[in-house]
Design a protein that fits this description.
The protein has one domain: 4-Layer Sandwich (Nitrilase/N-carbamoyl-D-aminoacid amidohydrolase). 24% of the residues lie in helices and 28% in strands. The chain has five helices and 15 strands. It has a six-stranded mixed sheet. A six-stranded mixed sheet has the order 6-7-8-10-13-14, with helices on one face. A three-stranded antiparallel sheet has the order 9-12-11, with helices on one face. Strand 1, helix 1 and strand 2 form a beta-alpha-beta unit. Helix 1 runs parallel beside helix 2 and helix 3 packs parallel to helix 4. The relative contact order is 0.16.
């Protein structure tokens, strides 16, 4: 029998303001609180240091971007070191004049900067004009070998694409983290809200099932401009069971213990990886199969 491999996952679901200083301080306070409660890996929501600025196309918002690694990365390295936690933090990256990315950094529990993942799938929808701001990622899918686990990081819109979760899992990720910013239009009917949230959670739970890994999805919450960010951050076990779900309206910090050896159990009993027919999958790289 395999020994347990228990890891305590912390998440921060928070409301943001137009003050980067206030948002940063709130996040740091919550990271320290989670560390005191036993968290070993802490994930923040997408673009946590600002309001979600992609609700409109405004060139002034490019001033929010920064180099990675840079000042904020170095600050978070010190926070991770002091709190002794692995830290997953989503930032607006300025790579060069005219080239910007939606990027997440991963910092180990000793403060070491392990690298970054740049968001691959970039949406362009009313209220989510990300193609105006972000160049599609070119880091490839990434797995980070942290003190406590091998983790894969994908970002928001990436979460709807099974290929992204599959590739990251095949690279060895034991947990998939999804920093997220998604919400409802305020005038959506309740049944539409329920349908949208259920679809969002179901697709990510399906990644857990298909790949036999834990999934951690951390969303922002609260009204910003014409969007009600729906919160509902959650953690799923490797067979899609939700072991924690946050409120749709309130901020939340939470520590959830998980056992990484559950993957061994579910992957053995439900051997989807064994039975993959990779020799039949070549058509998947085509846009459509005519």
């Amino acid at each position: 029998m395999l020994e347990d491999r228990k890891v305590n996952i912390g998440l921060v679901q928070m409301k943001c303001t137009d003050s980067k200083e206030d948002n940063m301080q709130k996040a740091i306070t919550e990271i320290k609180r989670l560390s005191a409660d036993g968290a070993e890996i802490v994930c923040l929501q997408e673009l946590f240091s600002s309001l979600y600025f992609c609700d409109k196309e405004d060139h002034a918002n490019f001033s929010l971007a920064e180099a990675i690694p840079g000042e904020t990365t170095r600050l978070l390295q010190q926070v991770a070191l002091d709190a002794e936690v692995v830290l997953i933090a989503s930032l607006f990256e300025k790579r060069a004049s005219g080239v910007y990315h939606n990027t997440t950094v991963v910092i180990d529990a000793d403060g070491t900067y392990l690298g970054k993942y740049r968001k691959n799938h970039i949406p362009d929808d009313p209220g989510f004009y990300e193609k105006f701001y972000f160049t599609p990622g070119d880091t490839g899918y990434k797995v980070f070998n942290t003190k406590h686990a091998k983790i894969g990081v994908l970002i928001c819109w990436d979460q709807w694409f099974p290929e992204a979760a599959r590739i990251t899992s095949l690279m060895g990720a034991e947990i998939l983290f999804f920093p997220t910013a998604i919400g409802w239009e305020p005038d959506n009917k309740s049944e539409i809200k329920t349908e949208q949230y259920n679809a969002w959670q179901t697709i990510q739970r399906s990644h857990a099932i298909a790949n036999g890994v834990h999934v951690v999805s951390v969303n922002r919450v609260g009204r910003e401009a014409d969007t009600d960010f729906w919160g509902g951050s959650f953690i799923s076990n490797p067979f899609g069971t939700v072991v924690y779900q946050a409120s749709h309206e309130k901020e939340a910090t939470h520590v959830q213990g998980i056992n990484l050896h559950e993957s061994e159990h579910y992957r053995t009993v439900w051997p989807f990886l064994r039975d993959r027919r990779i020799d039949t999958y070549e058509p998947i790289v085509k846009r459509l199969i005519d």
